[in-house]
Design a protein that fits this description.
Helix content: over 70%
Radius of gyration: 18 Å
Distance between the termini: 23 Å
Order of helices and strands: HHHHHHHH
Structural class: mainly alpha
Number of domains: 1
Strand content: under 5%
Number of strands: 0
Largest sheet: none
Length: 213
């Protein structure tokens, strides 16, 4: 049942999956052409966060436009718990797809190989924290009241990206090399899992009380 709900979300965004796929491929290549020194870490981070947020927002938009669909799902053998959990799995699968696409590109373009294993791990932690806060709020307040965050993110992205490029020279990921790799991996993954588990439990509790009529 859970996998069917995840499949449903991907079917909703099928028109945009190809677009996000192309963006994930083209954007790092664009950075190699324009700013090769930033093509690795910033390219990977931006395409991953943007892909997850864009596709999640589109699913939420469609569910808001057709509220009876959620009522129908709950009337069928789909529990509200599974409906909520499918959103988290949906986002995690997008994250893994972005990692896979970028990993393949690093094999073809050496300029992207400055992204070590630390960055995907820490980015997963960032994504988990974002989802851990955002999804419960969205279930509590609804898409209409939280979509402003999406608009602000889109408007701020060019500025944040420009500032990130300026700050990149003054920042270094070398501090990660001073951390025991096993501790870094285990600590980040455990924290990510805990955040997602707690967040999903809160979201399920909120959604179970929601009036879908």
């Amino acid at each position: 049942m859970l996998l069917q709900l995840v499949k449903k979300d991907f079917l909703i965004v099928k028109k945009y999956v190809l677009l996000m796929f192309l963006v994930c491929i083209i954007f790092p290549l664009f950075l190699i052409w324009r700013s090769p020194e930033y093509a690795g870490i910033l390219g990977f981070v931006l395409i991953t966060i943007f892909s997850i947020f864009m596709l999640l927002q589109y699913v939420s938009l469609k569910e808001t436009q057709y509220p009876k669909a959620s009522t129908l799902l709950c009337a069928l053998p789909f529990s509200r718990k599974n409906i909520v959990l499918s959103k988290y799995i949906f986002c995690i699968l997008i994250y893994l797809a972005c990692c896979l696409i970028f990993g393949i590109e690093t094999l073809l373009f050496p300029q992207l190989r400055n992204v070590g294993y630390e960055v995907p791990i820490l980015l997963f932690l960032v994504v988990s924290l974002f989802l851990g806060v955002y999804l419960p709020i969205q279930y509590k307040l609804g898409y209409e009241k939280t979509k402003l965050f999406f608009v602000v993110l889109i408007m701020a992205s060019p500025f944040v990206f420009a500032q990130s490029l300026k700050m990149e020279n003054s920042l270094s990921m070398s501090f990660l090399s001073n951390i025991n790799p096993v501790l870094l991996l285990a600590g980040s993954l455990i924290t990510s899992v805990l955040v997602l588990v707690i967040s999903s439990a809160i979201s399920v509790r909120i959604y179970k009380k929601a009036d879908l009529s």
